[in-house]
Amino acid sequence: MLIIRPIRSSDYEALHRIAEESGHGFTSLPVNEKLLKSKIARVEASFQKDIIESPFDEGYLMVLEDTDTQEVVGTCGLEAAVGMEDAFYHYRLGTEVYHSKQIDVRNEAETLTLCHDYTGAAELCTLFLRDTYRKNNNGRMLSRSRFLFLAQHAHRFGDTVIAEMRGDCDAQGNSPFYGWLQKNFIGIDFVEADYLSGLGKKAFMAEMMPKHAVYVCLLPEEAQKVIGEVHTNTRPALNLLEAEGFRWRGYVDIFDGGPTVECNLNDIRSVRESRLLNVTIGEMPEATSKFILSNTLLKDYRATSALLKISDDSDEVILSPELAAALLVEQDQQVRILAL
Question: How much is the CA Rg of the chain, to the nearest whole Å?
């Protein structure tokens, strides 16, 4: 059985392996022992906070465990409110209009302006699934399970939810968008800049990034073409988020130009459509519809997928003793479900 649960300190080796496998552009998991252990400790502290007056710097990183092998095979994460401790930079794509009555000419010029507009927003992040498990809707289950957690614990997150989509880059991690920035401003290559950002060492951004709006038309053509474009491997993830109601509002990553999409938490389709049902433990009836289901706990959060027989007007679901035990739920407790 595949079970999603909060990460714990004993998962460090597995997380380090995933950080290595995830490759360039996966900023949230740099291959660095100190940072990864610090991330796990921060997540454990976040899950231990029983009372949250308002979301701040909490992080909720979960792992996908194959209970048959006790192997961690994937991750998915949520940030409660970005930019509260460290600056959270984006470029905002805008337009400047130039018009002269004297010569009867009107021109529009796209600009990129450095900003912190998403400060306080919640973030979907750190989604990774090992190659051998990319089948049977496992990736969809892992990604969408986060919406059950958002629905159950909405008060722990910012009202707006964002997701940074990986931008266009080659197999070596070189970004066409970053090339002009490296040459004219920062002076270090993309992989190093991305790695430093993942370590939280972001002072160089404020020190070396252009202070004024950048005219898109002045960038090299190859850089212009990838603004707002996603990496080929990221397209399925973007399609899934767009189906949930996420939209691009003109914000892009400052390094690779990839789009950041957003949606109000309560407008996310899976948040709206998830349901709370009362558990009856017994023999499960035959079913053909697959659901994601989770318990309603915090530090003992568990989620998985299963074939369930549920009618639209029912407030009850029958779970086998094995499935109930895996989800840490008992008779008459509740689970949150979502059609997969």
Answer: 22
- One DSSP character per residue, 103-132 reads TTEEEEEEEEEEE-TTTT-EEEEEEEE-GG
Residues labelled catalytic: 231
Q: What is the DSSP string of 60-116?
A: EEEEEEETTTTEEEEEEEEESSTTSSS---EEEEEEEEEEETTTTEEEEEEEEEEE-
Burial of 28-59, coded b for 16+ CB within 10 Å and e otherwise, reads bbbbeeebbeebbeebbebbeeeeeeebeebb
Is there a contact between 56 and 84 (Cβ–Cβ < 8 Å)?
yes
Mean per-residue pLDDT over the chain, rounded:
91
Q: How many whole angstroms separate alpha carbon 91 and alpha carbon 256?
A: 11
Coil, strand or helix at 256: coil
As a whole number, mean pLDDT of residues 235-244 equals 92
d(Cα 124, Cα 116) in Å, to the nearest integer?
17
Summarize pLDDT for 277-304 with one digit per residue, the tens.
999 999 999 988 999 999 999 999 999 9
pLDDT tens digits along 212-237: 899 999 999 999 999 999 988 888 88
Question: In 3-state terms, what secondary structure has residue 312?
Answer: coil
CA distances from 324 to 121, 140, 171, 327 (A): 34, 22, 43, 5
- CA–CA distance, 58 with 99 (Å, rounded to integer): 48
Residues 6+ apart with CB under 8 A from 275: 336, 337, 338
Residue bearing the bigger pLDDT, 94 or 188: 94
- Per-residue tokens: 4: 């999603």
CA 315: distance to chain centroid?
31
Whether residue 198 contacts residue 29, with contact meaning beta carbons closer than 8 Å, is answered with yes
Question: SS3 of 236, please?
Answer: helix
What is the percent of the chain with per-residue pLDDT over 90, rounded to a whole number? 72
> Would you give the distance in Å from CA 64 to the centre of its chain?
15
Asked whether the beta carbons of 271 and 150 are under 8 A apart, the reply is: yes
